[in-house]
Amino acid sequence: MRPKILTRRTAAVIAALPLAAVAWLATSPSQASATGASTPDAVVGYLHQISGNHVISGVHNKEPLSNPSQYTAQAHSVTGKWPGLWGGELGFTATDIASRQTMINQAKTEWANGSLVNLTWHMCRPDVDTCDFDSGPNPIKGSHLSDPEWQQLITDGSTLNTDYKRKLDTAVPYFQQLKDAGVPVLFRPLHEMNEGWAWWGGRSGASGSAKLFQITHDYLESKGLTNIIWVWNVKDIDGGAANVASYYPGDSDVDVASLDPWVHNWPSSEWYQAIVNVAHGKPVSLAEVGTVPSASQLAAQPLWTWFMIWADYLTNPSYNNNAAVQATFNSSRVLSQGQFSVPTGSPTTPPTTPPGGSRTGAVTGVGGKCVDVASGGTANGTAVQVYDCNGTSAQSWTVGSDGTVRALGKCLDVTGQGTANGTVLQLWDCNGSGAQQWVAESDGHLRNPQSGRYLDVPGGSTANGTRLQIWDRNTNAWQLWHLPA
Fold first, then answer.
1. What is the pLDDT of residues 40-80, one digit of tens each?
2. Do 312 and 164 fall within a single domain?
3. pTM here?
4. 400 or 254: which carries more pLDDT confidence?
């Protein structure tokens, strides 16, 4: 919206591989290649791997659909780079709906050129075929359903429910084309659902906007559209972070959780944490931004996996200037087209020792904090803790081909070979013991096989100096970790 403007497939994307093997799945940012046929799992797996280390640049291309890459080209003219994510729109006016094929052809081209594909849909009311955004009869903005109409909409077989599914049917052939071309689609339906500017939004709870997302998900999947990556989206409305979970459709319906920071231009720490928490280890993204984030902002909130600049805001002097945009696109953290490769085909188990050996970098967790060796100490028994990311050697971890995680020449170790809940973590000479073995699971959990327990932050504390421990596996965000790419 202009501001006043792991789904049921989540069987293992990277299930229970040695840490080094998981790191191998992430393509080096400097290794670019054309993208062939791929799967949603491969894309989501890649997003998991860059989370905490890199972020993909993106630009949305709003109407007219007859010119479906004008703002992507504008970004290239400013930065000299093609964005790594191309955003398109399914359209709502009669003219744009008639131009959907042009837009889909462009989506195929962008994918072939090496960019991710994202689709947004400003959808007319279910009982209206075409409409305008904010004028005319039944516009998208400001047009609402009554409570009885809403109840009818979410009731299977009712008139409005049938109208809604017929509207979804109009998009099915285009998603099918992308599926046939091997293009996974980051699809963001019913966006900014926690605000009531559009008819689908502002209804919290199990029978509210989240229910319509579930209906959308289930209906399009029933059409065999297994190439959709489901992106759930909210807006940073004041006071809304505490209530965001009441709009979440559920882990089985969502692949990526996303935020549109239009109110404050950059997410507050409260909103960042709210999205990370509700995502339950899924990748998170900035689905719409007006002001292009700076490299320092992205480093401070390192789990965002892409940002998508909203169309003409790129060159709006109230939001951006060329020097700032160029600085972000030239940041070593930001990946544009040609600077990454999305894995093709379905994820497969890599060899035990990954090509190129180990990977080194930060390990990040709850609140975007880094796993840190206390005071950079190298003595056996030095505490391992969470701390603000600072780029020091105390936060540089090498994921080894032998299942170890090492820093400062020593290994991440469970104190005293302990197996009980609450046993703390330390740094120790690498000795090949089970206390120094770590295995990654599909959603970001890190398991110590000897104890059967998981790397954990006590109580989810984000206070600097909180010492890490092992604990029974749970769904709390503080057991989810992001490895170096």
1. 999 998 898 888 889 999 999 999 999 999 999 999 999 99
2. yes
3. 0.71
4. 254
Q: Identify the domain containing residue 467 by its residue range.
A: 359-479
Sequence-separated (6 or more) residues with CB below 8 Å from residue 80: none
Tally the domains of the chain. Answer: 2
| Token code pair at residue 41 | 């799992």
Long-range contacts of 425-428 (CB under 8 A, 24+ apart): 425/383, 425/384, 425/455, 425/467, 425/468, 425/469, 425/470, 426/380, 426/381, 426/382, 426/383, 426/384, 427/373, 427/377, 427/378, 427/379, 427/380, 427/381, 427/382, 427/383, 427/384, 428/380, 428/381
From CA 412, how far away is CA 239, in angstroms rounded?
A: 40
On whether both 111 and 194 belong to a single domain, the answer is: yes
* Model pLDDT, residue 343: 67
Tell me if 482 sits within 8 A of 55, measured CB to CB.
no
* pLDDT tens digits, 120-158: 999 999 999 999 999 888 899 988 999 999 999 999 999
| Same-domain pairing of 176 and 299 | yes
> Is residue 353 included in any domain, yes or no?
no
Is the domain of 399 the same as that of 316? no
67: CB partners within 8 A, 6+ apart: 61
If asked whether residues 326 and 367 sit together in one domain, one would say no
C-alpha 199/C-alpha 168 separation (Å) is 16
Q: How many other CB atoms are there within 10 angstroms of residue 353's CB atom?
A: 15
What's the rounded mean pLDDT across residues 79-96?
97
